[in-house]
Design brief:
Elements (H helix, E strand, L loop, with lengths): L1 H27 L5 H8 L3 H7 L3 H26 L2 H29 L2 H24 L9 H8 L9 H17 L6
Helix pairs in contact: 1-2, 1-4, 1-5, 4-5, 4-6, 5-6, 6-7
Length: about 190
Amino acid sequence: MADNENLRADAQANRDRILEVARDALAVDPASSLNSIAKTAGVGAGTLYRHFPSRESLVLSVYRKEIDTLVALAPVLLSKHPPLQAFRTWCDRLAKFGRMKYGVADIVHAGTSDQDMQETYGPMLGAVRQLMDACEGSGEIRRGSNPEDFLVLVGLLWRIPPSAAGEARVKRLLALAFRGLDAREE
């Protein structure tokens, strides 16, 4: 039993490492080869293909893991920071995710079913709602803001090319979105 548990732990560690490397590689170059991702992750191509039989499955797994990470990050940030700082930090992480998604958005959209959308959109909306509720409760944004509207608005960040000019635009757009919530300036 211990050998099987070690094997499973090793397999999970390999999978997690592949996803981390793929996230970073795809953010830099959406055309990164699966072989280069495997090599950087320190695994053979066979190991990568056992976990992710296609480029699409790898991209969708990276996407899902990033969504899960963002959802889990909201309460952690709220436990460590004042609400508005937590919300801004969360949005910065969302923008970083957008840089990865920019180059692979077509794969994500083509490979995402309605059920996948429900399974990812609902929790993301919940994270935004949690952050906004905390900010409203502390008086850091105006009451009555709509979390779904905010999420749709910041979803536009994923269409901005990951360049120096794009980074500047992301910062301006996030500042504009926060001004729309009547958030105090940084």
